[in-house]
Design brief:
The complex is a heterodimer of chains A (132) and B (312). Chain A has helices at 2-22, 76-81, and strands spanning 31-47, 54-60, 66-72, 94-102, 108-110, 123-125, 128-129. Chain A has 132 residues and is an alpha+beta fold. Chain A has one domain (25-129): OB fold (Dihydrolipoamide Acetyltransferase, E2P) (Beta Barrel). The longest helix of chain A has 21 residues, at 2-22. Chain A starts with a helix and ends with a strand. The relative contact order of chain A is 0.19. Chain B is of the alpha+beta class and 312 residues long. Chain B has a domain at 67-277. Chain B is 17% helix and 21% strand. In chain B, strands 1-2-3-4-5-6-7-8-9 form a nine-stranded mixed β-barrel. In chain B, strand 5 and strand 6 (212-218) form a beta hairpin. The chains are: A alpha+beta (132), B alpha+beta (312). Chains A and B meet through helix 1 and helix 2 of A and helix 4 of B.
């Protein structure tokens, strides 16, 4: 029995390892689009690169524990078109970011469409609403 | 009211209404809250398609394609479900059941596959939103690994902005998406008979009239997909592009796929797709698929999105 469990866990780890290298451009499918959550905390990193720009935020959960969030947007060219830049966030910024959360419940958020005509998610940086 | 003050009024009104667009065109490297720098001539941003509506244009110049041409990616150039003329969808996006199907039976505008074509289609597992969508972990889209996008997929996946440069014997074609270039020979040479495959093929072009330029491309690497829905092609694929200069500011692109090994009849990926001329100082921004950036993204974002829940 132990052996079987060990094999299953190896298989699970193997699948995960494969998924890492194949993952890209998942669109909305991996996120719960039915509701909006707010990630509130301190920026620890901001990566302005392909395939998607992302910002890392340390937030507190209900019990006061620190949760490491990552919120992704779209590629830098598309984000530039709606006024983002490599300077939009910096480590230490206090932020509130509205996003959709990953369906698996992990602390990952997504800002959705970057279409210039789509409604923008609410973002507050150091007490000031971000309006590019 | 004098003619002069009417003109002034029109200019002021246009200035006010277009301010957000013009600002978006220049707001490329400013910190939040900072005003856009009007002298910023780098990483230009094209307007969105509604901006062009009703615009008057000068007549088309004869036998000329040179310039930066924008496809309004977010308003039409983006083709996540497959080539624009044949998306692999049962109904317009958002209205039909998507994903999980073994083939394309029932899609709105079906393609006609040979048995070899159908087999090749099934071997390609797309992760984009279409009838055969599979979970990202099971997809085998070469582009997910930053492998070359190839031709014609560079026109049938995310068509954004291209630059065409005409010389005495070539048209140089620069495609922003994932940084591709092609050379289209206009010196009258024949296409190669049995060429070594290339991701972007071998192209020759000719003017069929003063405003219509037709390009034929062969020798395409069959490891690339035709579009984001995993449409296959063989080494026999021939692509015919028609660039029709409608007037000074507008160009139409038609892309025909001819591959008798895979499809029982030719089909159009794009049909008279509108491209808009940008100002002469328009600077294409870089959009490269970098394996090292992809790896970092997967590590920091992708893995967490796909991983099973850690919640009890």
């Amino acid at each position: 029995m132990k052996n079987i469990l060990r094999r299953i866990s190896f298989l699970a780890v193997g699948l995960l390892a494969v998924s890492v290298s194949l993952f890209a451009h998942h669109g909305n499918a991996a996120y719960d689009t039915s509701k909006t959550i707010t990630v509130k905390g301190t920026v620890t990193d901001y990566v302005w690169a392909n395939p998607h720009v992302f910002v890392k935020v340390d937030a507190k959960d209900e019990s006061g524990n620190t949760v490491h969030w990552v919120v992704e947007a779209q590629n830098p060219v598309s984000m530039t078109q709606i006024g983002w830049s490599k300077n939009t966030f910096k480590a230490g910024d206090e932020v509130e970011i509205e996003a959709m959360q990953a369906k698996n419940g992990n602390p990952v958020g997504f800002l959705g469409s970057s279409s210039p005509t789509a409604p923008r998610k609410r973002i507050v940086i150091n007490g000031k609403q971000f309006q590019p | 009211m004098s003619k002069c003050s009417t003109t002034l009024l029109v200019i002021t009104f246009a200035g006010l209404t277009l301010t957000p667009i013009l600002r978006a065109q220049t707001a490329t490297s400013n910190a939040p809250g900072e005003e856009a720098k009007p002298d910023n001539k780098w990483n230009s941003v094209p307007p969105i398609r509604p901006w062009y509506a009703g615009k008057k244009s000068a007549p088309a110049p004869r036998r000329s394609l040179s310039g930066v041409w924008d496809a309004a990616e977010l308003d039409g150039g983006r083709q996540p479900s497959g080539a624009l003329e044949h998306p692999a969808l049962l109904a317009p996006r958002g209205q039909g059941v998507e994903g999980g199907r073994p083939d394309e039976t029932g899609i709105m505008r079906p393609l006609h596959y040979t048995s070899q074509g159908l087999e090749a289609l099934k071997a390609n597992k797309p992760s984009g939103p279409s009838v055969r969508q599979v979970p990202a972990a099971l997809a085998n889209d070469p582009v997910d690994q930053c492998d070359p996008i190839g031709f014609p997929r560079m026109e049938l996946y995310e068509l954004r902005t291209i630059e065409l440069v005409q010389t005495a014997n070539q048209v140089i074609y620069l495609n922003q998406f994932y940084g591709n270039y092609r050379v289209i020979w206009t010196d009258g040479r024949e296409l190669p008979k049995d060429p070594e495959p290339r991701w972007n093929g071998y192209s020759v072009g000719k003017w069929v009239d003063d405003y219509t330029f037709v390009v034929e491309t062969v020798g395409l690497n069959p490891r690339s997909w035709v579009d984001h829905a995993g449409r296959p092609h063989s080494e026999d694929l021939r692509v015919e592009e028609t660039f029709h200069r409608v007037d000074h500011d507008n160009l139409e692109l038609t892309v025909k796929i001819i591959d008798p090994k895979m499809y029982t009849e030719p089909w159009l990926g794009l049909s008279k797709f509108p491209l808009h001329l940008q100002p002469a100082d328009f600077d294409l921004s870089e959009l490269i698929c970098s394996p090292i950036d992809m790896q970092e993204y997967n590590k920091q974002v992708g893995n967490a999105v796909l991983a099973p829940s850690e919640k009890k």
